[in-house]
Design a protein that fits this description.
With 198 residues, the chain is mainly α. Helices cover 49% and strands 4% of the residues.
């Protein structure tokens, strides 16, 4: 079944689900510079691997509770006891590898902050001119599942030890945080102009 490109003036992937619409209108594709939010989406997008994004959105508050309000420094200090506790917590996807990878990824996130000054600045190293990429797709079918930026960033992150952050998940991350704007040209959110990251 083919998804409708636009529904009620919005990108058709959010359909008519209220939570999806709120996420689409208020967050998706909007530039993020806040480090805690960048870590939040790193945790959430990694948790999404193999699942539907709406499933993760519905558990977002559970993830907030489980992972210290997305404080990377606190998550980095979590132990095996915390992993066992979270394996019993209904508010998140109880996948041991994903839980442990969130902790490992937090430690690596902090290392990148130290190396580059911020995780935001690290991401920008994969963008020529340090500006967001704004596409002009008219249909959902035109939107790729990965990009040169996500492939390069994912490859580098894998070398550094990040888990559950392949090129497709990385691309979804870059879309979510506004580094790549893939709102369709007919979408009402395209009326909001993008601001360069410089």
């Amino acid at each position: 079944m083919t998804k409708q490109d636009l529904i009620n003036g919005r990108c058709g992937w959010c359909a008519t689900d209220a939570l999806y619409i709120q996420y689409h209108d208020q967050e998706w594709g909007k530039p993020v510079t806040d480090e805690r939010t960048l870590f939040e989406f790193l945790v959430l997008e990694s948790a999404q691997a193999g699942l539907n994004w709406l499933t993760i959105l519905r558990k977002r508050e559970g993830y907030r509770q489980a992972f210290c309000d997305f404080d990377a420094a606190r998550v980095a200090q979590m132990t095996g006891e915390d992993v066992e506790r979270l394996m019993q917590f209904d508010g998140i996807v109880r996948n041991r590898l994903k839980i442990t990878s969130a902790i490992t990824n937090a430690r690596l996130f902090l290392a990148l902050q130290k190396e580059f000054g911020s995780f935001h600045d690290y991401i920008l190293t994969f963008f020529p001119g340090k500006n967001p990429v704004v596409h002009h797709f008219r249909t959902l079918g035109e939107i790729p599942v990965s990009s040169p930026e996500s492939e390069a960033m994912s490859r580098d992150m894998k070398k550094r030890g990040f888990r559950f952050f392949g090129a497709t998940i990385c691309h979804a991350y870059l879309q979510a945080c506004g580094f790549i704007d893939d709102h369709l040209t007919g979408c009402l959110c395209r009326k909001n102009s993008q601001v360069p990251y410089k």
